[in-house]
Amino acid sequence: MNDDQQDKPLYYDGSGHLPLPSKSEQSKELSDSERSDLTQPLQMRTVTFDFEFDHSMWFGSHVIVERDGVIVGSGLVEEYNEHDVRIERDWHPRRLSSFKISPSTSKR
Asked: CA-CA distance, 34 to 108, in Å (whole number)?
């Protein structure tokens, strides 16, 4: 591979195979910022608004229900109304509970 080919970005060519990284890319050390990204704890986002409950239903996000700092339920949001949220066949009051979407591990 000459220098001109090395500088060009690799694109999927439709052959059914993805281009393999070069030897230099395979042995590349992680930078400090990449390494710190891997060691950071995953953050859970609190769900408050109706559109966030809609998104969790549409995308199948796992929701954890906490009441007074104790986990009282978890699962997929099945339905919700102005006062309650139904998760895995159990109704949880919106005023007394906090709902957190568990972080996705596929994307950081």
From this structure: 11
Q: 100: how many CB neighbours lie within 10 A of its CB?
A: 17
Count the helices and strands in the chain (H runs, E runs). Answer: 4, 6
pLDDT tens digits for range 25-77: 555 666 666 666 555 666 778 888 999 999 999 988 999 999 998 999 999 99
Geometric angle at alpha carbon 65, from 64 and 67, rounded to 5°: 145
- Do residues 64 and 94 make contact, with C-beta atoms less than 8 angstroms apart? no
Return the H-helix or E-strand segment holding 5: helix 3-7
- Tokens coding 108: 């950081």
State the maximum Cα–Cα separation within the chain, in Å, rounded to a whole number.
65
Report in angstroms the alpha-carbon separations of 2 from 8, 11, 22: 11, 17, 12
The DSSP secondary-structure symbol of 51 reads: H
